[in-house]
Amino acid sequence: MDLSQAIQKLFNDIRDVAQIIAPIAAIIGFIGLGIMYMGSSWPIIGDWKGRP
Q1: CA dihedral (19, 25, 26, 27) positive or negative
Q2: pTM of the model
């Protein structure tokens, strides 16, 4: 295996891992945004956001 094949394999592995991690991160982000938006009436989140 020469250098160009090794680099191509490395980038393919990185792409494969990113394709697994990206949707998980998006779901966690949307859940977090939903909690921040809907949970503003909760005292802990309201205090953290600076709203009474």
Answers
A1: positive
A2: 0.59
